[in-house]
Amino acid sequence: MLPVPALQTNRRAAFLSLKERLAAVRQPAPPQERRLPCELPALDGALGGGLPTGLVTLEGAPSSGRGAIAFRALAAASRSAFVALLDDGGCYPPALAEAGVLMERLLIVPVREGTLARALDTLLRSRVCRVVLVRARAWSAAIWGRFARLARETGSTLLALLDGTLQAPAGLPALRLRCRSERLVLCGRGSVGGALLGFDFSVEPFARALPSRTPISLHALRSGATAPVRERSLRNGRAPQRTLRAHA
Q: Are the C-beta atoms of residues 185 and 222 closer than 8 Å to each other?
């Protein structure tokens, strides 16, 4: 039997050896936040790769560009996961298919005014969909907070379309995108016999982690060949005639 001093020395040596071996083991790097690209290079670059998980609000008037961002995000996510859209009667599937959304991976949930919040809560808790798109209502701060928490915990991106008069409580959205139309892009001369190819819009991002809130100019044009188009500004009414290549 070893004497007590020798036993304590051996234990201490074994402890120090184990401590050194554990210190030599590299700790795994913290996982990077998963970003969802919306395939608008200027916007993805400004956001560090795309939209974050959690609550993302798309704010602005109708036809301000918020739908273009939402549809592109759905299209990108549908290539590797299921996505969902809560339809309150305004869903137009051909527009989703044209934006590149894989319809076999899109879950369209019909909702009514009294069932919207409950349907959204159930859908987020199911953890089935990578992205959920909803037209938001004037919910209480408690309901907004529950949806933001569920989106973070489930690793999904909740895209909430907000009209200009509606706003989520401060601090809850992981990202706010304020959209504004800049000009319409028309094919042909005037409205008679002309066609709407798309529009240009600007996006102003708001998030604590962003170094800049400078508005970003983007395009929401249909893919196609070169066509004579006419830009009609929504701000000053000028309409310079020129030829552009329409692109998505």
A: no
Domains of the chain: 41-180+202-217 (3.40.50.300)
Compute the distance between CA of residue 173 and CA of residue 44 in angstroms, rounded to an integer.
18
Q: What is the pLDDT of residues 2-46, one digit of tens each?
A: 455 665 677 778 777 776 776 666 555 444 567 899 888 889 988
> pLDDT digit string (tens) for 67-77?
999 999 999 99
For residue 183, give the nearest of 223, 217, 215, 214 by alpha carbon. Answer: 217
203 - beta bridge partners? Answer: 179, 216
Residue 122: pLDDT above 70?
yes
Backbone angles phi, psi at 194, to 5 degrees: -90, 170
The pLDDT assigned to 126 comes to: 93
Cα→Cα distances 233→90, 191, 239, 240, Å: 27, 14, 6, 9
- The predicted model scores a pTM of 0.75
The CA-to-CA distance between both ends of the chain, in Å, stands at: 82
Contact 60, 166 (CB under 8 A): no
d(CA 45, CA 187): 30
Residue 108 C-beta-side C-alpha neighbours within 13 Å: 14
Mean pLDDT of 211-233: 62
The vertex-149 CA angle with 134 and 79, nearest 5°, equals 50
Q: Give the three-state DSSP class for 176.
A: strand
